[in-house]
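ok so for the tutorial part 2 we go from a plain amino acid sequence to predicted structure tokens. step 1 is just haveing the sequence, like this:
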Amino acid sequence: MKRINIVLYNPEIPQNTGNISRTCAVTGAALHIIRPTGFEISDRTLKRAGLDYWDKLDVTYYDSFEEFMDIHGGSPMYFFSAHADHSYADVEYPDGVFLIFGRESVGLPRELVEENSDRAIRIPMLPTLRCLNLSNSVAIAVYEVLRQKGFADLT
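step 2 — the prediction. this is what the tokens look like for a chain of 155 residues:
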């Protein structure tokens, strides 16, 4: 199985990114961070949240979404948004998939979700509440892909 790729579009909260980095490290997923971020990557809170897993993480940084797309534009991608019509559980994820998540405060840009509506997916939740925590959303998505692949390479 090719690696799962988690993409954080302008993350704002270092603790979330640290928790996501830990999820990536223990599952073998790669982490892609698109700047700007709401924190310094060297921030001790980010390092503390990732703790002893930071050196086991495959992380790549991009200065813009355009730079990310120039490199990975031909890859299979799914865009997570509370405004999407399709459930994450209805997708059969291909190997090497990129799962893209937006900022904690506003999610992905609306136009990005609309331009990719056929690949925009959501995690079902009560309609009266805004969203799940970003690190929880990433964990749900990663483990759905892993479940579909029979938890290959995990014990």
